[in-house]
Write a structure and sequence with these properties.
The protein has 336 residues and is mainly α. Helices cover 71% and strands 2% of the residues. It has a two-stranded antiparallel sheet with strand order 1-2. Helix 5 runs antiparallel to helix 12 and helix 12 packs antiparallel against helix 15 (304-331). The longest helix is centred in the middle third of the chain and has 32 residues, at 105-136. The chain is globular, with a radius of gyration of 30 Å.
């Protein structure tokens, strides 16, 4: 009787367990199915964003890759003139566009200036932002006002700032040349001389980039424990030693990220160059992205295939830079 009771209890427990688990098919669900069943709510929240990015970014990217392997231009693409519909007549040319770009001296000239422009702007923005962040991290009168004033250029739309600087750099009526004239110095052709134009666009971009660096560095400084500075000061470390051995290592994770982001932004900083100098005088200040725009929207006939090839090369260069930069950080012990 006892045996029968124990067997009945075991069967009842097995039946209850089977009912709780549902039907067993004998198949183990795959990792994708498990992820969807476990994190379905997160996937549902992300799905609209993925769809929008796919439409806004994915389609133009795929279309650009395709056009870069053709000879598409304004004369042979599909178009409608009045009531007449003209079909596309462009054809595939494989990688000829990329070969033409890489063999063109214009590309290497633009690439050289783009690298100089990017390194100069990022280095100056980072250096000035770090100095200002160290100053504003201390207790001083009016610190909140200074912080707001230094962040203000970031709040103003970029095109408004660039047009304002364009008025400041005006050779005849600009404020800078009027100040110089008051000191007996001849007017400087800020935007009409190749050298001065390059210095001008770098100045404007640094002015726009410093607030971002300032905010990032200030946040990083405030995350460093103050006890480290107190202990170092008690050990006799001077200001430079504290900065080199505490501040810089404490900011390494923040600075590595903002340098990468700022480098990518600056490499593709179209508004400052285009609105301030239009790539001039001549083509002195033209970077890769403005030249790609010129091919697609300025020259006649518009070279859509060539512009797409330039865009793909720019994407590859930035991807290569990001990969190399990330590997360099890993070698230094940074996990990012």
């Amino acid at each position: 009787m006892a045996v029968d009771s124990s067997q009945s209890l075991a069967k009842a427990a097995d039946a209850q367990g089977v009912r709780g688990r549902g039907p067993r098919t004998g198949k183990t669900p795959g990792p994708l199915r498990r992820a969807l069943s476990t994190h379905w709510y997160a996937w549902a929240m992300v799905a609209p964003v993925v769809a929008v990015i796919g439409v806004i970014v994915g389609y133009p990217l795929v279309r650009g890759l395709y056009l870069s392997t053709t000879d598409a231009n304004e004369a042979n693409v599909e178009r409608t003139i009045g009531v007449n519909h003209i079909p596309a007549t462009y054809k595939s040319v494989s990688l000829d566009n990329y070969t033409a770009v890489l063999q063109d001296g214009v590309f290497w000239d633009r690439l050289t200036w783009t690298v100089i422009w990017t390194v100069s702007c990022v280095a100056l923005s980072f250096g000035i932002g770090l100095i200002l962040a160290n100053m504003l991290n201390r207790k001083l009168a009016g610190r909140s006002f200074y912080r707001m004033a230094l962040i203000l250029p970031w709040a103003v739309p970029a095109f408004v700032s660039v047009f304002t600087w364009r008025l400041i750099f005006n050779e005849k009526n600009g404020i800078l040349n009027k100040i110089l004239a008051g000191g007996g110095i001849d007017a400087i052709p800020w935007l009409n001389d190749p050298t001065w134009a390059k210095l001008s666009v770098i100045t404007v971009n640094v002015w726009l980039g410093v607030p971002f660096m300032l905010v990032a560095m200030l946040g990083g400084l405030q995350s460093i424990p103050g006890e480290l500075y107190e202990a170092a000061e008690m050990d006799g470390a001077n200001a430079w030693q504290r900065f080199r051995n505490i501040t810089l290592p404490g900011l390494r994770s923040v600075s590595s990220t903002v340098i990468l982001i700022s480098g990518i932004w600056t490499f593709n900083m179209f508004p400052v160059i285009f609105l301030l100098t239009r790539g001039g005088p001549g083509d002195a200040t033209e970077i890769l992205v403005t030249y790609a725009y010129r091919l697609s929207f300025v020259v006649s006939p518009r070279d859509f295939a060539g512009s797409a090839a330039w865009g793909v090369i720019i994407l590859l260069l930035l991807s290569l830079f990001a990969v190399v930069y990330r590997r360099a950080l890993r070698k230094q012990g940074e996990v990012w």
